[in-house]
Specification:
mainly beta; Elongation Factor Tu (Ef-tu), domain 3; 2 domains; 6-stranded antiparallel barrel; 6-stranded antiparallel beta barrel; globular; repeat; Lumazine-bd; Riboflavin synthase; ATP_synth_asu-like_sf; Riboflavin_synthase-like_b-brl
Length: 201
Amino acid sequence: MFTGIVEELGEVTAVENLGDASRFRLRGPVVTDGAKHGDSIAVNGVCLTVVEHEGDEFTADVMAETLKRSSLGALTVGSRVNLERPTAVGARLGGHIVQGHVDGTGQVLERTPSEHWEIVKVALPADLARYVVEKGSITVDGISLTVVEAGQDHFTVSLIPTTLDLTTLGLKQPGDPVNLEVDIVAKYVERLMAATPGAAK
């Protein structure tokens, strides 16, 4: 489990096409400290497994399903990525419960800068809109954010300077894809309501 609090801005150093999968090598001195084979690291919000680890770099395999559902297939050598290790048991939950299981991708629509923050508008796939509510939580490229406005086909988030400086959202431009993970609690509630006879619709 992750919390959506990005630990560092890493970099893709190699991409190998394996046909029905890809192997990425990524640099991240913070997240590789003490890393070992089999550990999990979230890359732009996608939970990946460490295959190899050497120095401040690690490799991870990404299967076709993940490439289809996320924006990882668009990464190239030099791409910057958000990196986070799983939260430790007993640690503070700084963001919200994030699984690292991307639900789909959105697209940055526009950026509106202000003196002390920036509003970013993101396109929202129709099948995810029902899980996104004003002042609720959403994960964008692995970053736990609070929804400012929830529309039928978009949502907005307000970004502080720290988020702009230390994550990929400071670099994303209109048209760029982003990974989205909606609040898992909302999905469980929906499933339970559907399975409960006589539940309010």
